[in-house]
Amino acid sequence: MVNYCAIIGCNRTGGKDKVSFFRLPAVITNQGEKTQELSEKRRRLWISRISRSDLQPASYPFIRVCSDHFVNGKPSPLYPEGATDWTPTLNLGHPKCNTEATPTPDRENRLKGRQQKRKTVEAAQSLISLFNDIQDNTETDSKLESDEPEFDCKTCFFEEEIVSVCGTKTTRASLVRLI
């Protein structure tokens, strides 16, 4: 059987064109309410994007959309919601959908990069605050229990060896490894 794209104005067929065809997403009923609601929402959006007046629920199993209507050439999975290819977005044959800014895979990559960078920055900030807290506690304890001359932070950091109040010897190299 030859596949035809359901998008108005798209003449792609499975026999002569080298494109992939994808079915209308099914409603997933056996994985919880949230998944069912999300898959129903996705299916409604697909039908809305196809925007054909002759579509009936009986014809849903036979609906196909070709890869020309997806940014990456195929639909994305159900999760995460709102991914670039969650629904067909390109060359829909009607002006109903706002396509001012065409979504690109680079946008998703930038989003993932920002999220990773945010996690890295948060981890670095927590390490710095932990280091500062330890340093403040060490300075306070040494002021209370020691009659030795005080060193400022820079002097202590660049000394080859720092001796804390409890007598543990910490080298500059081990501190650098902690940071």
TrEMBL record:
InterPro entries in the cross-refs: THAP_Znf
The THAP-type domain, residue ranges: 1-91
Ranges where the record places region Disordered: 97-116
Protein keywords: DNA-binding, Metal-binding, Zinc, Zinc-finger
A Pfam family matched in the record: THAP
GO MF term (any one): DNA binding
Protein origin, superkingdom: Eukaryota
Keyword tRNA processing recorded: no
Zinc-finger found in the keyword field: yes
Name under which the protein is recorded: THAP-type domain-containing protein
Species for this entry: Sinanodonta woodiana
